[in-house]
Amino acid sequence: MDSDELPDCTECGACCFSNLPTYVAVTGDDYARLGELAETWADFDGRRAHMCMHDGHCAALRVEASPKPAVSARYLCVIYEQRPETCRTLERGSPMCAAERELKAERARLYAERQRTKLDFVEKN
Question: d(Cα 57, Cα 37) in Å, to the nearest integer?
Answer without folding.
Answer: 18
